[in-house]
Amino acid sequence: MFIGRARELKALNNLYISNKFEFAIIYGRRRVGKTELIKQFIGNKKAIYFMGVESNAKQNLENFSKSIFEFNTGMSVDTVFASFQVALEYAFQIAEKERIILVIDEYPYVAHASKSLPSTLQFLIDKYMDSSKLMLILCGSSVSYMEEHVLAYKAPLYGRRTAQIKLLPFDFEETCRYLSNMSGEDKAMIYGAVGGMPQYLLQINDRLSVEDNIKNTYLNPTSFLYEEPTNLLKQEVREPATYTAIIAAIASGASRLSEIANKVGEDTHVCATYIKNLISLGIIQKETPYGERMTRKTIYSIADNMFRFWYRFVLTHNSVIARGADDLAYKRIEPYFTDYMGKVFEDISMQYLWKLLLSGEAPIEFKSLGRWWGNDPKTKSQTEIDIIGERDKNAAVFAECKWRNEKVDLGTLETLVQRSQLFDYKNTHLFLFAKVGFTKGCIDKAAILGNVSLVSYEDILKAM
């Protein structure tokens, strides 16, 4: 079942109907659905589809030649072009008479094996861009390679592309479409456990409970997700053991570079290099208090929900899981699930605020959103704000998010009011996000203040 990606499909179709040479670059993390998007797009169109393999240039040229001849003759033949240049030039030439799509999937594998390929493509694009109706698509899972060797200023192909799509995981709303048979709460918990990666969502049965799904995936030694993080790291990095140690340290609560380095037993400079790579892979994110750039308050957290869940719960209970004791493992995980969901609910609430802004319904049109933490001079203690978004120096929104099974009370609202007053904004709007709702005292106070929106999780679901 193919869901979502309407915006990306529309962009690709707009390129297609131009009926002139187009060059699109599609890239994103493994499992994000790049190949499925391409297959959905080329479905009933004339297209040559070739997927590169992690092999030598000879093997890739043979496979590429086979793809071209199968397209042109409808038969599988053993003929091989003399070189990639000859094969590519043939594709450009046959597209002079009609619209043809040429897809090179997993392009980095092919380019690594054939070092001259980028320059060859540059030469042929410059030669045929005015005469050929070819729509060329290069696709890659190595985000760093695509950004540094295809999109970057110094790359041979720089300036030739007519579009680029960085495919991201589904957001919460798109994820819910896939989990259509689940209750609202279960949708959030599954989103918290596997995130919005299409390949991971395919492992979920939305007719089963959260408990059964987690047992069938993370707590099942034979399942796809059981060793997914370590398998991914082995494909992406040279020293997966050190990367695993760093992610595990962050999952256990270490957030500052010095804390992470101490837990891992490495120098901070060494850890910083590994963390930079994890950030480029979309696994770790660097955070600073909202509005602050160069600061010693920088922290690191796990950006990907699947990695966060796996390192928080699966790695720590691996000995039990490996022995087939999924009931015992889940029994140990369940008491901490609500606390784990706190950060997930902040993310869902932030997505709701963005939707308000884009629909023109935001009370204050903020430019960005983030978290803030720092010192409260009144209480002389550390404090934090779940979400803050500034329009300008005079206006901002503040939000507090509570994923718990009791109604949010007046005290929570009063605390948010106090924290918002740590800043000098003249115009503020406060949001309280709650899993189950609000007490009468909280509702009454919000009405008196007039600049407060009370949003339950049910309200978020209704807005989707």
End-to-end distance: 20 Å
Total of helices: 22
Q: Low-confidence segments, ≥5 residues, pLDDT <50? A: none
The number of domains is 3
Number of strands: 12
Spatial extent as radius of gyration = 25 Å
General description of the model:
This protein has 464 residues and is of the alpha/beta class. It has three domains: 6-166, 3-Layer(aba) Sandwich (Rossmann fold); 203-341, Arc Repressor Mutant, subunit A (Orthogonal Bundle); 362-462, Trna Endonuclease, Chain: A, domain 1. It is 47% helix and 16% strand. The chain has 22 helices and twelve strands. The strands form three sheets. Strands 2-3-4-1-5 form a five-stranded parallel β-sheet. Strands 8-9-10-11-12 form a five-stranded mixed β-sheet, sandwiched between helices. A two-stranded antiparallel ribbon has the order 6-7. β11, α21 and β12 (452-456) form a beta-alpha-beta unit.
Q: How would you concisely characterize the structure shown here?
A:
47% of the residues lie in helices and 16% in strands. With 464 residues, it is an alpha/beta fold.
Write the layout of secondary structure elements.
Blueprint: H1 6-16, E1 22-27, H2 34-42, E2 47-51, H3 57-73, H4 84-94, E3 100-105, H5 107-113, H6 117-128, E4 134-140, H7 143-150, E5 163-166, H8 172-178, H9 184-194, H10 198-201, H11 210-216, H12 228-236, H13 240-251, H14 257-264, H15 268-280, E6 284-287, E7 299-302, H16 305-314, H17 318-322, H18 326-333, H19 337-358, E8 370-376, E9 381-392, E10 395-402, H20 410-420, E11 427-434, H21 440-449, E12 452-456, H22 457-462
Parallel strand pairs: 1-4, 1-5, 2-3, 3-4, 10-11, 11-12
Antiparallel strand pairs: 6-7, 8-9, 9-10
Helix pairs in contact: 4-6, 9-16, 9-19, 13-14, 14-15, 20-21
